[in-house]
Amino acid sequence: MDKKKLVILAALLLFLVVLVIIYLNLGGTIKPRPTQFISSSQDESESEKQNESTTIILFFPSEHDSLLHREEREIIPESSLALHAKRIISELLNGSQRGFLSPIPPGTRLRELYITKEGVAYVDFSREIMDKHLSGSSAEMSTIYSVVNSLSYNIKTIKKVFILIDGGEKKTLGGHINLTSPFQPIYDIVAK
Amino acid sequence: MNVFGRGFDSRRLHNAASIIEINDRDKLYKLRRGIPKLTLAFSVIFLFLSIFSAPQSQPILKISAQDYEKYSRVTIQSDLPLSSSVEQSDTFVFVKIRANTPFRIQRESFQSRFVKSVGWSRGSGSYMLTINTEHENFSCNSFKVQNPPRLIIEIHPNRGQDPPINETNRNMTNPQTVDPECIVIDPGHGGLEVGAKGKFGTLEKDITLAIGMKLAEIARQTRASNVVLTRDRDVDISLEDRSAIANNNKATVFISIHVNGSYRKGAAGPETYFLSKDATDEESRRLAFMENNSKEMENNIQAEDEDLIKMILWDMAQTAYLKQSSQLAEAIQSELNLLWGTRNRGIKQAPFKVLTGVACPAVLVEVAFLSNPQEERKLLTEEYQRKIAQAVYDGLAKFLRDNSR
């Protein structure tokens, strides 16, 4: 048989296999519920004028105890609540500047963040947050509540935080804490 | 129906074909000879594709059976809402499921005392499932649960007439005094779900199983009660199924055994958790409760009142369980503190998935930290596993003593 034809066939097969793999990967993910989201543009007017920096407080776990610790940071306020919330999460993903532990596995990205009218923030992380997670209840607790506390503490309209992974609802990060309902912040686990 | 399922774009195939044509235009005569071969290749690829994609597009009907102490349960699960009728005749239960689209039937292998086999056939617009019990004297009841849609059929072999009329009330007010004591022990994780990992490669699932088995052994030797393990080998069991095992056995207490993992290398010591009130997944708890009690309620309450009553009963039960759960956690934690020589770290509340569906006092015990090498080494020894099991048992026994008065 012709060599060329063989090559073409092989390439075709490869293409199809890739297609199948892409297809299989796309299937199966659950889309987040389509509640009415406040779009980024709607609340622009709120904080447009301020140009000077504001202080946000992030919550990180520490090597010394099982509590979360505050870390202040100056940022230029964003034009909308959703953007501000995204900024807080990206600051959290960047890790501590004061030597606290990083609560979120390296390589994790923030995919999307919405805030609903009811004050529920939907935070959608890439799948590294689950796949690379050091399983264990304490580790899961510090990951979840560093996100939940950091968001609710700085943005008062956020009453609850729903964590999504890869665009969908997941049951847990590693078999412990329930991700199928939204979290309220817990400040008992924050160092005084 | 599109055999390739959603997401497959047939245009891309044509594009690929036309590229080949352009590249080979000058050798068209060669290609023409090759056409039958190409078509053959294409059809092979098509076949290959359809094998891969068909399962994705077709709704699945999953049939499984499981034994409980006094009955067997057949669960029919689907991606679509089920419309069905159940009929009992001779040694068979016939389940007719209406279906507009064909299902892919998935039968899980099972061994059951009362369910000998489950067969199926397809009629026009419906499926007929045949459950053979090989028992002539049995009763069966069925009910539906949502999320995912499931039809549940319970096969009870007849053992004289003792229909539990007031079962709901019995459950609600005081589980210990009427129902026989049942301790459900849940060794965390299992199968592919390994849980936390230690520095020396120890897996959480192995330690939880070892301790859980020892705890069950101690409980069986010491008490005249029913002791149920959610798993007794290395298998994957979903968190929902673990709570369902507790509810189906009408558990007096539920104890989930785990080993902790932390980002802090220095994290050490035991911790006992119970569900936090505001963090309880009320919806799922309510669901589990309804699944448990729907049989009794169906008979005598109107549909719309039913939900309201269930909700009220559920909220009452939940508050009672939370208080007892905290007592149980306290009792176990203080025994573990004695064992490890830790000062009281106190009990903690967190929304653990496995606890959210359990309709009885329920705790999750983190016996020690696997992320701590010293504790990992201890956890690997039989001696410590036994000591931990004993400490958890002592706490449990104290709780049961205090609550039986």
Architecture blueprint of SSEs:
The complex is a heterodimer of chains A (192) and B (405).
Chain A: H1 3-26, E1 54-61, E2 68-75, H2 81-94, E3 110-115, E4 120-125, H3 128-131, H4 137-154, E5 160-165
Parallel strand pairs in A: 4-5
Antiparallel strand pairs in A: 1-2, 3-4
Chain B: H1 10-23, H2 28-57, E1 60-67, E2 72-78, E3 83-89, E4 92-98, E5 104-107, E6 117-123, E7 126-132, E8 138-145, E9 150-157, H3 167-173, H4 175-178, E10 182-187, H5 204-222, E11 226-229, H6 239-248, E12 253-260, E13 271-274, H7 282-298, H8 303-340, E14 348-349, H9 353-356, E15 362-369, H10 373-379, H11 382-404
Parallel strand pairs in B: 1-5, 10-11, 10-12, 12-15, 13-14
Antiparallel strand pairs in B: 1-2, 2-9, 3-4, 4-7, 6-7, 8-9, 13-15
How would you characterize this protein structure?
- The complex is a heterodimer of chains A (192) and B (405).
- Chain A is elongated and about 75 Å long.
- Chain A is an alpha+beta fold.
- About 10% of the residues of chain A have low confidence.
- Chain A contains four helices and five strands.
- Chain A has two domains: 30 residues; 134 residues, no CATH class.
What composes the largest sheet of chain A?
3 strands, mixed
Share of helical residues of chain B: 40-55%
Biggest sheet strand order of chain B reads: 11-10-12-15-13-14
- Secondary structure class of chain A reads alpha+beta
- Helix/strand order of chain B, N-terminal first: HHEEEEEEEEEHHEHEHEEHHEHEHH
User: What portion of the residues of chain A fall into strands of 2 or more residues?
Assistant: 15-25%
In terms of DSSP E residues, the strand content of chain B is: 15-25%
End-to-end distance of chain A, in Å? 77 Å
**Arithmetic mean pLDDT of chain A:** 86
CATH topology category name of the largest domain in chain B:
Aminopeptidase
Total of helices of chain B: 11
Shape of chain B: globular
